[in-house]
Amino acid sequence: MEQLELRAYTRDEISAITGIPQVYPSGSINKSFIGRVQERLENWHYECETPRGGNVIITKQPTTALDRLHEIMMRKLDFDKQVSPREFAAFMHFMMTVPKAMHMPVEERLSIINQRYKPVCLSKSTLERWVNSLEACDAILTDGTVRWKTEKMIDGSLVRTLPDGSDEAHEERRAYTERMHELFDEYRTKKDLSGKALSKAVFATLWEEFSYGYGRPTPVLQWNGFNMGPELYEELFLLVSEICKG
Questions:
Q1: The CATH fold of domain 65-144+221-245
Q2: What is the pLDDT along the chain (246 residues), one digit of tens a residue?
Q3: Are 149 and 136 in contact (CB under 8 A)?
Q4: Where are the domains of the chain?
């Protein structure tokens, strides 16, 4: 993403860049134009001078990786200035470098990020909000769904994996689904269960019989390179890599 240059910008130029109008659609003059421009440029980590009645002169650009990332977040990805660029860098670095990250359940994603990028500590709602924001600005797209398999191992630990397309995986899923429908019919009629109680009883039995289960459909995300552009994607990757390396 091109930074603002260290030079004077006319009011028309700076209005187009910042999105702050000099004149409102009603025809009234924006009397706080310069003040709002200064505030927005400061949020983007620039410094400027504004001679009375003259141009806006950029005197300092954002130079650190954190400030550059924060600028991109606000200018290109429509993030609010309160979003921590360091936390966002951890999220983006994980999404860009881990092959299965783009179709992991959010709980799995959250657990790994908080463990790998300490002291970063994100919440499930934060991750969901960031994914929604990236989708809203067309930086990522949703391309179908997958169901992850959770399996109980001999030592009692739980392992979550993404089933492959093998015949064995299809047969496991077919047997599980067939039994699930049988249990729903059986418990609904013989045990007079319904709603959450019915589902709880069915899946408890499935877990006892199979020692594995399938989660809810998880969206498969992909980067929208056409909209983001390879240059911006590469710049984001280099910035988040530098931040997370440090």
A1: Arc Repressor Mutant, subunit A (1.10.10)
A2: 899 999 999 999 999 999 999 999 999 999 999 999 999 999 999 999 999 878 999 999 999 999 999 999 999 999 999 999 999 999 999 999 998 899 888 988 999 999 999 999 999 999 999 999 999 999 999 888 888 888 888 787 878 888 877 899 889 989 999 999 999 999 998 888 889 999 999 999 999 999 999 988 888 898 887 677 889 999 999 999 999 985
A3: no
A4: 8-60, 65-144+221-245, 149-215
